Each structure stands twice: as C-alpha cells, then as structure tokens.
Amino acid sequence: MQVYELDLDIPVATGHKNLLNHLQVEIESRLPAGAVPVRVAVTSTDSTHYHCEIGVIAEARGVPFAKPASVFEISRRQVENSDSFNAVMLVPTGINCEIGGHAGDAGPAARLLASVCDRLITHPNAVNASDINELPDNGLYVEGSVICRLLQGTVALQPVRSNRVLMVMDNHPLRSFSDETINAFNAARAAYGLSGSKIVVLDSPVELKANITASGRAAGRVDGLENLLNILDRERGTFDAVALAGEVKVPIELHHEYFASEGSMVNPWGGVEAIYTHALSLIANIPSAHAPMTGSVEATNLNAGIVDPRMAAEIISRTYLQCVLKGLQRSPRIIPNPGGRYLPGSIGVSEISALVIPDGVLGLPVMAALEQGIPVIAVRENRNLMRNDLGALPWTEGQYIVVDNYLEAAGVLAALKAGLSLETVRRPLKAAVVESRHNS
After folding, report:
1. What is the DSSP secondary structure assignment for residue 248, as one 8-state letter?
2. Which structural domain, as residue segments, surrounds residue 290?
3. DSSP single-letter state for residue 311
4. Which of 298, 317, 335 is at the close of a domain?
5. Second label for 283, Cα 20 to 30 Å away, from 39, 90, 298, 412?
6. What does the alpha-carbon distance between residue 59 and residue 36 come to, in Å, rounded to a whole number?
7. What does the pLDDT look like over 268-291, one tens digit per residue?
8. Same domain for 10 and 119?
C-alpha cells in the first residue's frame, strides 16, 4: 500500500462558497481509481484556481480495517457549547513556518495560548522537539488529520489519564540505532511512568522517502503501510496509542544544507511523516506519532556546530523519540461518528471555540471552521510558504481575525472567552449606527 502526494489545479468556486463540497467533487473526480485522499493543502489561490497538493492512499483495499471515511465529510454543529473555552492551535507540517516549522519551536506559543483556554488542542508538529515536549497541562496532543475531523464534526475526543503505548520500530541495519530506540522507550517507562510493555520490530519496514513539492512544501512517499496495519490488527485490544520509529530517507547533503540554512530551508523530514500518520489515523482511528530514526552513522555524527535555536532540539537528540512518547502518554481517544452522543467529558465540534493558524494557510481545518462558524485567528508573524488570501473567503462578520503575533492572538482568545466584542477594547471606538425606519 502506497501513500503519496499529487498536484491538482481546481477551479475556484463562486465566492469561495461550499469549499469542502466543491473540492470533494473536483478532487475525487480526478483521482486514480481506488485512490483515497488523506491530506489536502491549498498552496496558493489565484483568480481562477486553487493550487492543491493532495496526499492520497493509492489502494486502501485488502487491509484488516474498514475503508476510511471521506476526509471531506462534515457534520454541521447546531450550537457552540459555552460551558468551556477550547481552542485549536495548528502549525501545519512542512511549510517552513517561521514559528513551529523546525523542531517544536511553537511550544512557547502553545503554552501562552493554553494559559487563556480551558483546553488547547494541538498536534505533534507544534510541540515535538526530539527529547523535549512541553505540552501544557491543559493541552491535548492530537494527530493532524484527527483535528481536521474534529472540526468537521465527524469525530470527538475523549481525554484520558494515560494510554497503553505500543512501540513499533524498524529493524535498523545498525544494531546500535535499534538499541538506542529500545532504551528510549524503556527510559520513558522508568522515568515518567509510561504505560506500555511491548516493542514490535518490523522486519519488513514501512518505507518513508522525503521530497520537496513544486510549491516548496516538504512531502514524500510511504510504501508498505500494510505491514504496520497487519501488526496493529494482530495487537488489537492490547494498546491505546502507537509510537512509530522508522528511517526517513533524506539525502545526506540535505542534512548539511538544512542545518546550515539558519531556518530558511523547510524541514525535509516532517512532510512525509505527516502523510504517514494522517493515513494511519484515518484508517485505524488510533492516536499515533512518528520519530525519524537516523539512517546512517554519517548523519548521526553530523558536526553541524551551533545551529539556529529553532533546530537545536534535533541536533542534541539521538532517537527523537521522547517527545512522541510523552505526547502519546495522554493523547485523547478518538470517537468516530459521535452524532451528538458524546461520552461525559468528551470534546466535539460544539465544544470548539476558536482556531489559531498561521496567516495564509488554507486546508481542511480552515474550511471546516468557516462552515461551522468557528472564529479563526490568523497570525501574520508566522510567515510560511502558503499563498492564500483568507480574507476573501465568505466569513460571517467578526469570524476571521488577523493579528500580528501570538501575544495578540492570546489577547483575542481572552476577549472571546470573556464574551467581549473585540472593537470595544480598542480605540477609537466607533459610535453605533442609528437607523430610522418608518412603519408602513
């Protein structure tokens, strides 16, 4: 089973209305027979087309799981539940975000936003920093495609005290690399009480090969996903989340170029990891995250010197695994097709109060928020490769809010939580419009 990305130019919808349905019709009609979309990025928009890069599973049959539901499906919420204030923070993988585009360097921003929320829902790319994961205490660590479906109303999240984590790793040709991964897993059990007692070593690995797309995004191809799915089927009932460790094939010259780029180059590893876990979560509905095993002694012994602070977490780690294990320890369970019948304490789309994104990013979460009436806060300072004018979308009044930085985003979240009109806490304050009407 192969997962890969392809480029499609989709005609612009009139007024950008009903985007999810429009893209579903246009994309699915153009895909090869049997292909199932797993990830959708609109890399740029012009007057005539949405330029899309689509992650797809080439063939989803013949595996021990049901065919995944459409990533475009939406169940519209009727109301917002105001009992709690829960925000989603997204920093999409592989688009060279100024903040969060390298190695968990959106962690401080996540902690800031969490301080003004009851719950902050975010994804591995925002907080994973090799041996570091400073997810806030009120944060939920959720794989990106699950966040898409949460906003679309087709899954809910059930917070947990802890998960039983299954470790699945490649059988690395260099024994020392495998030993370090096993030691990292056992260290998590001994040092902070990770629940999980089994490591499965794949003799037939899932192969991940990174590449860079025409837009400059990090992407890639995944081969052999069925090898993992068969293992997960065999282990059903013994685990709640799966930690993955496998090699991402990246030419050694890209290692050197990336760490010497001072943050100007897209992180080449994250894109293919994202479509891997997107496909897995869509098929199996389990929390998952991936740590890249180093492919060679040369890469491990890379002498990069002192690097950009945003990359430093990657330079100091050997396995890149602790952030994954720490995140999955309390990653919420996924409840498919909740249909309004939630377990006590669960979080569905009606419990989502706001979405915070880098400005210019257009994908399934933003389209879902647009249709669900969820306020979207776009952060200008988090520059990235995407080129979309989000202000052109058919927002309701006050739904789309542009801020300069995450400090301002936190203020907007605090105002929304307090039920304040944003214009009333700024000056000048315009007088209300007085309109006279005559009864006839």
Report:
1. E
2. 113-335
3. G
4. 335
5. 90
6. 7
7. 999 999 999 999 999 999 999 999
8. no
